[in-house]
Structure to design on (152 residues):
């Protein structure tokens, strides 16, 4: 089964791949590896903003992380690499949060669970989940990725 068919079967519609908001490439391929810049969470075209533990609750944070994961997959599709994914190697999750908030791993599970849902065992990955005081554009979550590609 193709990844495109898997997305259809899961009822997942990918967003339009976001353009960079500064001087960087959203995706760089080097050999058999794809490096994806941090992706921000857009739900229904709106950026999810705020801080976990203040004005964003855990469930909204998880949905934001999932939206970041969808944007990672959208970037792969836009680059024509979706069917070449061999394995999601690593996700880096950044969670804008107040100092007392310690559930960053639960937030980033939104992206991690999505990768396993879409790619099966190849979607299981290494990961970091880090709390930060602020993210670009006041985003609540940002997720980047390192992905191994087939046929390179």
């Amino acid at each position: 089964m193709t990844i495109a068919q898997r997305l259809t079967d899961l009822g997942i519609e990918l967003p339009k791949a976001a353009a960079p908001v500064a001087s960087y490439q959203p995706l760089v391929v080097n050999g058999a590896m794809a490096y994806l810049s941090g992706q921000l969470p857009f739900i229904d075209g709106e950026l999810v903003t705020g801080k976990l533990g203040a004005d964003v609750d855990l469930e909204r944070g998880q949905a934001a992380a999932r939206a970041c994961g969808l944007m990672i997959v959208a970037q792969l599709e836009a680059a024509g690499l979706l069917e070449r994914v061999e394995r999601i190697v690593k996700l880096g999750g950044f969670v804008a949060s107040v100092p007392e908030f310690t559930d960053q791993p639960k937030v980033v599970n939104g992206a991690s669970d999505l990768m396993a849902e879409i790619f099966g065992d190849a979607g299981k990955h290494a990961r970091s989940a880090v709390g930060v005081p602020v993210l670009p554009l006041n985003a609540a979550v940002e997720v980047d990725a390192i992905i191994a590609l087939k046929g390179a």
Notes: The chain has one domain: 3-149. The chain has three helices and seven strands. The mean pLDDT is 97.
